[in-house]
Design a protein that fits this description.
Distance between the termini: 79 Å
Shape: globular
Largest sheet: 6 strands, mixed
CATH superfamily: Endonuclease/exonuclease/phosphatase
Number of domains: 1
Structural class: alpha+beta
Order of helices and strands: HEEHHHHHEEEEEHEHHHEEE
Low-confidence stretches: 113-147, 182-220, 468-494
Length: 495
Amino acid sequence: MEAAPIMRKSFSERQASPGIEGLNLSAFEEPMAPETELQDFQIFAATWNVGGKTPNNCLNLEDFLQVEDSPDIYVLGFQEIVPLSAGNVLVIEDNEPAAKWLTLISQALNKPQHDSIFSSDLGPGSKISNNVLKDSKSPSSTLHFFQKPSHKALSRNLRADSSVLKSCNCPVDLHSRESRRRLRKLSDLPNNFYSESSHIGRYSIVDEFLSTAEMPSSPTSPSQMSYCLVASKQMVGIFLSVWARKELVPHIGHLRVSTVGRGIMGCLRNKGCIAMSMSLHQTSFCFVCSHLASGEKEGDELKRNADVAEILKSTQFPKICKNPATNRAPERIVDHDRIIWLGDLNYRVALSYEETRVFLEDNDWDTLLEKDQLNIEREAGRVFSGFNEGQILFAPTYKYSHNSDSYEGETIKSKKKRRTPAWCDRILWRGDGIDQLSYIRGESRLSDHRPVCAVFSVEVEESNKNNSFRKGYSCAGRRLDFEDCMPKRHSLYEF
């Protein structure tokens, strides 16, 4: 028996069909808003080889940090914050200078109305001592009794108002029964839950579900701070700290750190890098502070190339999410959306000292930059593939005589100790959505290097809060369980 033919109605007939009467098509007329929208933020990045010199108590960093321009994020990398002695390299690193730099940076960014905690006058009549005595039970007050506080203790103190910083900000279904059950348990946690010995630590997924009002208050009145210390890390003489506006802290997540030693024997930590990974809203960032191989002999640039290659190869950030399907956190440097690499890269000028001096006297930097090893190696594709650098419009940053504006060769007669001026201190970047607004050097005489600073405008993807599903749409995507985004049992409270 022949099958009955399939009857197909025209569009006009289907529109008039009672089967779809009452279906409101207006909900489908407007396109859905995009899932994310782009926001612009400013990042200030700086690198400074301080030559093992500890800053004095009255050093004002406000001009150096361009505080008046109010960037959103500060990425500050230092090299040789301690002398690269055998004791610091092989025995135990001195972290007291790092604590001092943190305090000076915080004072510049937040402009507190009190004296430096490193003041030599800590007698009974001093303002600081009186304040400490009034609040002697404060956990952080003990910092004021010492001229050389602990780097880790001071880091915790400055990070006190970063309590909502997330370990993981991957999507979580807050409406599932299990998530609601866990949230009820979290709301009953005691105030002392965030102890230093906690395996979860202050920077965990727990903070994603607790409001700032529920967090224990800091004895140092962090509400008065404009910028918070997101993270800091020291590796012998290399020191990297990242600061952010207080209101951005809840939107920062996936915070991790990795270090690579490239010094003596290719593994000791007098040279190498510190890399920090984090996300701001839905965009991943990697900040790398490195100190590469030194030397101005022919062929030394190949050692620096090898350092960069090994850093890119060996840097591995730990996983945060248990479920790899929901893990948005990059594990390698080049996997990040935006990368800023800064440091004493140590690339020199491929000219003799005498030839370099002639061009310097004429301020002919363009000719010198044609002989800059980093430019030569990058153009040849041997290092920093895919990275960019802004136009250099400043004099070589190395090497200056002590407390002087003269290059060392002008004052030293010995050819063995003389160094050819060079642009050792550099800032590079990689990724779309990054525009460099400035690239300058500072003029501090603290060390034989001049600091170098750059300001970037970066695009950040932010979830569109207005992008809700309208009636008539459905999503068949997998519902995420709370456990999928629980971090492994390691603390991101301090590095």
